[in-house]
Amino acid sequence: MDTTTWDCIVVGGGAAGLSAALVLGRARRRTLLLDDGHQSNLAAHGIGGLLGQDGRPAHDFYADGHAELAKYPAVRVLAARATAAVAAPDHHGPAFTITLDGGEEHSARTLLLATGMSYRYPDMPGIAERFGKSVFHCPFCHGWEVQGGQLGVLDGGTTGAARALLLRAWSDDVTLLTDGPANLAAEDAARLAQAGVTIDERRIAGLQGPGEHLEAVAFVDGATRPLTGALVAVTLAQRGGLAEQLGAELANAGGHWAESLRVDGMQQTPVPGVWAAGDTVAAAPSVAAAIASGSLAAAAIVHSLTSLLARPDDVAHADAAISV
Ligand SMILES: Cc1cc2nc3c(=O)[nH]c(=O)nc-3n(C[C@H](O)[C@H](O)[C@H](O)COP(=O)(O)OP(=O)(O)OC[C@H]3O[C@@H](n4cnc5c(N)ncnc54)[C@H](O)[C@@H]3O)c2cc1C
Any residues with Cβ below 6 Å from ligand 1, and which? Predict the structure, then answer.
């Protein structure tokens, strides 16, 4: 067991966790960032819509984040997976033990869960290998890259009409693919017709095209329809069981979120000493929102640490205490 009691352990090194660690490091708080390197957008062509980084490959963005953190001696980054979290508060305040996949244990006064979410898309041939490229869940992220093409919305549910109308911002040629009889309200059907959206109810066999590119949707009857981009619905589910182990409450925020974490306006969960940021709480699922919530959570954690009683192993400033 590492005998350092970290001021904060940040679990997850995506946009939210890196942003939080940066703020914590600049506040000279002893911070351990744990990350096993599965940021949700790594498969995408680039980060769409992030000011100052628009279109930048996600790998490069995270590498820059690591380089920035390296300047702050209070921050240690470990490429590791946190497998267990136990809260063990004492008279000094909250305290936690985190166990890593190799069995190593670390203790901390506060925790930030920035573990991201598992994006679940329809189980249909041709989606997985194109997800984040020609097949996407977020038109604000990837609509620009497929603009003007033959676009499809794969959605036979109640959200299909709204999503097809939304996608019209990126192309005049939009088809709502319902994969079976369309169950549209008369009002939705009228709005789709007015917007020039085609409805295709044929059963879908899969998506086709070379590599990550999309050329057509294939139907069960053997026919195809040309398609260069497809919007699919996703649900976001928690990754791993840390939040549950700590007793953090799940909220059903609706929309994309199957199970988000409940937090207050400063990203704090109802569990004392535990904050959460990024996709794991229901905000706009975007890199910009993740950066913002990570930064906010870190500032709140720094404030909270000032009100905790000092433990015997605490030192005023991290620089002297840690070799990174
Ligand atoms: C395919 C795709 C494309 C996207 N494109 C865009 C886009 O163009 N523009 C945009 O703004 N948004 C985009 N998004 C959304 C955006 O990527 C997310 O909203 C954002 O990355 C969320 O950041 P996060 O830090 O919360 O989570 P993540 O980036 O997912 O990072 C979480 C990190 O925590 C790690 N982790 C999880 N559990 C543990 C654990 N127990 N121990 C250690 N590490 C752990 C994971 O491995 C991961 O590295 C896209 C999403 C997807 C899925």
Answer: 11-17, 34-41, 43-44, 47-50, 81-82, 114-116, 119, 131-132, 138, 141, 239-240, 242, 278-280, 285-288, 290
